[in-house]
Specification:
about 40% helix; alpha/beta; binds 9-methylguanine; globular; single chain; two-stranded antiparallel ribbon; about 290 residues; eight-stranded parallel β-sheet; TIM Barrel
Length: about 290
């Protein structure tokens, strides 16, 4: 029986129908025009717009995980994310997620009020598992082959679905051994993280096989190169392709969809929920 709620610190997220996690990048190229204070304020305003559009979770990222991205020190990542978490926590009850792999950032984010740690390295950095287990946060364990600097150079699998599944089962078991209950764990196949187009399509087709262990599944396909390859569109014009893939993911069992274009994704998931049964979690309420 799949787990229908996720315990995120002092909040509980209902996953009986799919919800949207809105993406909030706070890297210098995102909101840096007027210095640190104004950048944090602009980021919070953007996040609140995503909440208005129906996001149930806001995922704050202070370090890029794109192919080729260069790591930043923990202190800099904390300077980027903490003011945004603190302000957002006061402004909205939605779950605040932090996209990080560093134990210092996990501890700081949890203390500031984050409810979910979204780790593209699945808590494999030294001290990360212990830091997450000591918090009350939920964790998202993502699969990645290699690391962001090199992952797209030559991804290779015998059976991508079985390899991703075994990895995620092993990481989930490590979390349980460290003291986390299953209602704090989400798994994610990591679309685009050390995968070719064919690997991504195979994972999407067979997504249901990953939900066999009963843990909720998060997917992030929004604006990624998979969408660009399928549609021939540049990064700024991938809304329709992203929404189409989000719908397929939801129909194949995903419970959390990580998306930049929240309003469009929420509408699409409402349609999915109407067909598959149950209401959606879109919080903006009024028909548009
Ligand atoms: C940070 N980030 C970028 N892409 C992502 C994805 O597909 N999943 C998760 N969990 N995080 C992601």
């Amino acid at each position: 029986m799949p787990i229908a709620t996720l315990r995120c610190g002092d909040k509980t997220l209902d996953l009986s129908t799919p919800v949207v996690m809105g993406v909030l990048n706070v890297t210098p190229d995102s909101f840096s025009d007027g210095g640190r204070f104004l950048a944090a304020q602009a980021a919070v305003e953007h996040a609140l717009r995503l909440v208005e559009e129906g996001a149930a979770i806001i995922d704050i990222g202070g370090e890029s995980t794109r192919p080729g991205a260069v790591p930043v020190p923990a202190a800099e990542e904390l300077r980027r994310v903490l003011p945004v978490i603190e302000q957002l926590r006061r402004a909205t009850p939605v779950v605040i997620s932090v996209d990080t792999s560093k134990p210092e950032v996990i501890r700081g984010a949890a203390a500031a009020g984050a409810g979910l740690i979204n780790d593209v390295r699945a808590l494999r950095e030294p001290g990360a598992l212990e830091a997450a287990a000591a918090s009350e946060c939920a964790v998202c364990l993502m699969h990645m082959q290699g690391d962001p600097r090199t992952m797209q150079q030559a991804p290779s699998y015998v059976d991508v679905v079985n390899e991703v599944k075994s990895f995620l089962e092993e990481r989930a078991q490590s979390c349980r051994t460290a003291g986390m209950s299953s209602d704090r764990i989400v798994i994610d196949p990591g679309f685009g993280f050390g995968k070719t187009l064919e690997h991504n399509l195979e994972l999407l087709r067979r997504l249901g096989e990953l939900t066999a262990g009963g843990l909720p599944l998060l997917v992030g396909l929004s604006r990624k190169s998979i969408v660009g390859k399928l549609t021939g569109r540049g990064a700024g014009e991938r809304v329709y392709g992203s929404v189409a893939l989000a719908v397929i993911a939801a129909l194949n069992g995903a419970r959390i969809i990580r998306a930049h274009d929240v309003a469009a994704t929420v509408d699409a998931l409402r349609a999915v929920a109407a067909v598959t049964g149950g209401a959606t979690h879109a919080s903006h309420g009024q028909p548009r």
